[in-house]
Amino acid sequence: MNALNFLKHKSEVVFIYEDYSVKRAMDEFQVSGYTALPILSRDGRYVGSITEGDFLRFLLHYDLIDMSETEQIEVRDLPRRMDNRPIMVDAHMEDLMETVMSQNFVPMVDGRGVFMGIITRKKVLSYFNQRLNAMVRSYAS
Fold first, then answer.
1. Predicted structure pTM score
2. How far apart are CA 10 and CA 15, in angstroms?
3. Could you give the 3-state DSSP secondary structure of residue 119?
4. Of 35, 77, 34, 72, whose CA–CA distance to 58 is shortest?
5. Interatomic CA distance for residues 126 and 128, integer angstroms
6. pLDDT of 62-96, one tens digit each?
7. N or C terminus of the chain: which is more exposed, having fewer CB within 10 Å?
8. How much of the chain is helix, strand and coil, in % rounded to 5?
């Protein structure tokens, strides 16, 4: 099985651009309900990921009281603790499993680094849970 089978296409994924203001990115976060989002360049390349914690650390570090200040700072200028490591479109299940164990979502990119979408840990675990249940049922029969 190829990791591509688990892909949630870019058109279904909430992401932000690296040139978004911090204010706009925080608004996207609030609407999305997610705790981490992929960051893309305007030409569609995967740049990294940003978390709620990254925003919180930024706000606490700069002690910003006036949120209008966040309209002047771009996402690319925010320090991030870590980025979700992407996998290539032709990745095998072994590559996916190794990565998904340490990340809630795994970005998938093509050979040029262009973002194709994400694979969620939940989707991978659900797949293996269904397979396990099917095996248990077949042994019980």
1. 0.88
2. 8
3. strand
4. 77
5. 6
6. 776 677 888 889 999 999 999 999 999 999 888 89
7. C
8. 45, 25, 30
